[in-house]
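Box S1 | Example of a co-folding query
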Amino acid sequence: MSSENTFDLIVIGSGPGGYVAAIRGAQLGLKTAIIEKDKTLGGTCLNVGCIPSKALLHSTEMYHFAGHGAAEHGIDLTNLSISIEQLMAKKDKTVAQLCNGVQFLMKSNKIKVFNGFGMLAGENKVRVKGAKDETELSGKHILIATGSSTIELPFLKFDGETVVSSDQAIAFDKVPEKLAVVGAGAIGLELGSVWARLGSKVEVIEFLPNIAPTFDKDVSKMAERLFKKQGLNFNLNTKVTGLKKSKGKNILTAEKDGKAVEFEADKVLVAVGRKPYTDRLGLETVGIETDEKGRIPVGEHFKTSVDGIYAIGDVIPGPMLAHKAEEEAVACVERIAGQAGHVNYEVIPNVIYTEPELASVGLTEAAAKEKGVEFNSGKFNFAGNGRAIASDGTDGFVKVTACKKTDRILGVQIIGKGASELIAAAVTHMEYGGSAEDLGRTIHAHPTMSEALKEAGLAVGGNAIHSA
Ligand code: FAD
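Box S1 (continued) | Returned holo structure for flavin-adenine dinucleotide
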């Protein structure tokens, strides 16, 4: 094989896992190639996930404020209107800017990009099937970062028109009058919020008794109450069973407490999770088997069962989050290069970017109880925070949970404006093994929302200054 097609590291997939792995590989002196089957680099996150959803959340939050909160500030915005075409164009521009940014980073790091479908083709070999030709590459190390795809419900098949996934719900060309959202996790709540702000009547249908079920119950309950005020209607403990047509209308059928319930819907967004993507990857050619959920099992340092082949990101077990994929990318490649890369799975932040935002890190109280760890929790409401009062951010609270014996922080839960940014300080404290008292004694600028984090740290010991 020509040296042109021989690499130290071949990465399959250019999402946050893949492209970050490629950059770290190049930084560490590895001759690196990356393969992407889609037209643009950046994977789910940049093209149809994190970035477009946040662009839509930002635009619609401004629109919602203009229509609902601006008048109180003396801002007159009568005759308010919104163009969905322009809204989508702005989102597309944001996505394009970031995808082009990844392309630029590949070039500046001298990473060879192959546009085509990557397939494992035996020991140290990868075949790239392009639009016109096929290329065989040889790699000392092969990293699978092929990510995930949407999950379809067997009784509610995607048709791209009425029954859609997030891929379509970030790109509707008009506001659906009635939108049913199946699943009250991050994607369902974020996209449900987007379309509710634009005027859709949104019914969220969730099988579990709480929305945002990965958070503590007090966070979920407050979120439910606040989102209801924004027009989202929640149907909990409700199991969707199918879709039928009646008098020309789409009727989503479901069951609650053994009784049939129905929801009329112009669009049905199915947001019940994602599945690992290993279609036609050729795992069988090298003898890699997937687990019961279709994920690629990995051992120490992200090694698969085959020497020289590694996997990271959504395609392996663990939370399906972009920053988890990125950290795994760096750790995996550093290990390949003989360094000591490591991922601390205890402190992966988790965020839902609604208004207010929900953010958490570490153990929930429920998980601490389940583990039999004795703990103290301290809570501070944003209603007692000056900056929150001055900037319409009083809804929500910060809760710090710390080990009863050592005071070491076990977890932090936040519901409030800007929670996605606030959680970073909690993550840092936890990364360094900080205690609730450490947090409470750390100086935070005044007036900032982050003072609520400090106060919650103090509240663990019953010493919060500004709580009534
Ligand atoms: P992916 O980003 O899925 O990338 C995999 C890439 O591999 C894709 O480009 C795919 O085309 C390519 N590929 C697959 N097979 C092949 C092959 N055989 N050959 C060549 N290329 C191949 N996460 C967050 O952390 N924060 C958020 O706010 C957030 N919001 C989200 C919103 C939505 C609507 C969705 C759908 C997801 C969101 N996520 C969010 C999840 C996040 O997008 C994923 O966790 C992340 O993209 C996973 O990264 P990855 O690199 O493992 O895979």
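Residues 12-18, 35-38, 43-45, 48-50, 53, 117-118, 145-148, 166, 187, 277, 281, 313-314, 320-323, 325, 353 surround flavin-adenine dinucleotide (CB under 6 Å). The chain has a mean pLDDT of 97.
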